[in-house]
Amino acid sequence: MQQLTEIRWHARAGQGAVTAAKVVAETALAADQYLQAMPEYGPERMGAPIKAFTRISTTPIEIHCNIENPHIVIVLDDSLLDVVDVAEGLTDDGVIIINTCTPPEQVRAALNVPESVRVACVDASGIALDTIKRDIPNTPMVGALIKVAGVVDMKVFKSLLAKNLSKKFGQEMIDANWASVDRAYEEVTVA
Amino acid sequence: MAEQKLVATTGNALVAEAFRQIRPDVVAAYPITPQSSIVEDIAKHVASGRVHTNYVTTESEHSAMSACIGASAAGARVATATCGPGLAMMWEMLYIASGMRLPIVMANTNRALSAPINIHCDHSDVMGARDSSWITLFAETAQEAYDNTIMAVRIAEHPDVLLPVMSCLDGFITTHAVDRACMLDDETVAEFVGEYVPVNALLDTENPSSHGNFSGLGGLYFEFKAQQRAAMARASSVVAEVGERFAAISGRSFGMVEGWGMEDAETAIVVIGSSAGNVRHVARQLRAKGQKVGVLKIRCFRPFPVEEIRSALRGLKAIAVLDRSDSFGAEGGPLYLEIRSALYDLQERPPVVNYVYGLGGADVKLDLIERVYSDLSGIAVDAVEPAPLTYLGIR
Q1: ipTM passes above 0.90
Q2: Is the pLDDT at B371 greater than 60, yes or no?
Q3: What CATH class does A4-190 carry?
Q4: How does residue A112 score in pLDDT terms, banded at 50, 70 and 90?
Q5: How many inter-chain contacts (A to B, CB under 8 Å) are there?
Q6: Which of B220, B245, B342, B344 has the most crowded Cβ, counting Cβ within 10 A?
Q7: What does the alpha-carbon distance between residue B94 and residue B96 come to, in Å, rounded to a whole number?
Q8: Cα–Cα distance measured from residue B298 to residue B309, given in angstroms and rounded to the nearest whole number
Q9: Within an 8 Å CB–CB cutoff, is residue B176 touching chain A?
Q10: Where along chain A do its domains lie?
Q11: Of A164, A165, A141, nearest in space to A151 by CA
């Protein structure tokens, strides 16, 4: 029996959603699972709304199409809530994780999703500014994902993160990113 | 079977790794989305000393292929990559590469042709070059793109062939998606492709020769073209043979056509490239419901595997051919025309319908494929009059 998890990422270009979608997919390799991650390339300009997709499966993934009925939606910028229907097609037992300072109850009311859908909020931008010193909320959002939905193994993710960052940065940046993941894991709240 | 490394990476990164392992003497290229990361990666491999290739940057694709032709005629093993408008700009030189019988290997990351401007996947680029006497392989996945690229070298350089090979993968869908794949080790690939021994190399001063000479009226142009056709015909068995040899080292089978469920299928979809996975996924679901459906994926488009196609499609009740490009003004897309032609000599010809789909990267949703199978069932079971050509999923 195939166990397939489909994640759709909403962000603005430049927030690191494509990288996060790829790294989350790569974590599946350590568990000998199958994976797929792809961006939906549109107008390539900073700040434009973009989507990215991650599939993780226990069996080979044959399909090459966008994800229309995700189990998990991750929103890296809450200003998109007014622009994009981020909950479109979300499964009834799904979860939506949003980078926002607004409490999850309020966000839930605005989203108009069924009771069965969990809404999780975390101030990933605030955490990123505190730890990484830049508003790049992608890594803390994965911390929230791990807490709320599992899917990704924390240790595997942190080691992949370090591997990716070490191409350009030193240990200080790796530690800051790890701290951002841990804080989002602790601080995410669900309604 | 050789030891392999499990990786999670993009199709483009894998193709660049294949090129590194092939160790071409010369790569001359011009970057174009979505091919760019292939040539960027090759440039990085060269700059970091991981491969000793002479990497030549050019001012256009026309120049890139010209430089490839010069280097190949001189006696070098040559590789490059392009797509879409870049391939279109190479068009004149494509014929020169094949006419001079130069075994150049090129990756093509299938991209639409403008206008309107579009950088996404379809097969208009490669179908525009289908008559240029390049052997043409298509990949469904990043893994197949890697495998095809390595096999391409052996096919191109085979003494019975000596034709250039285009190894195609779908732009963005395969080039930019992270996928799970296996890589052979460097020594295994080096051994598989072997040392390149050029034929009539210009730099072989002991045996001087000239290439691509004037051959006008009274010349041998016509005879040269007949030789090209014969070489392309001989390529069929070489492609199959190289595929078998590659399967022996990789454990991954290669067929010029690859069928799924075709043994007892009543209806089938014929498809090229990444969408074959979408079609197979839907076919599995329909099989689970008891419907006898099949999938025929074309992995080698030139030479066109007529016998294999005929034997796979013989006796079916209805067939749909999916074309990711159109031949405007013709009866249908290029694949449709050739499939229909291949079936013409059968005693009982099955009904064949054509769907043009996914132009400019339009998403190949699973419900569209379900609709095609449902249409086929209508034709096969309820004797619905087939619609010859449908633009699938048009808004």
Answers
A1: yes
A2: yes
A3: alpha beta
A4: confident
A5: 57
A6: B342
A7: 5
A8: 9
A9: yes
A10: 4-190
A11: A141
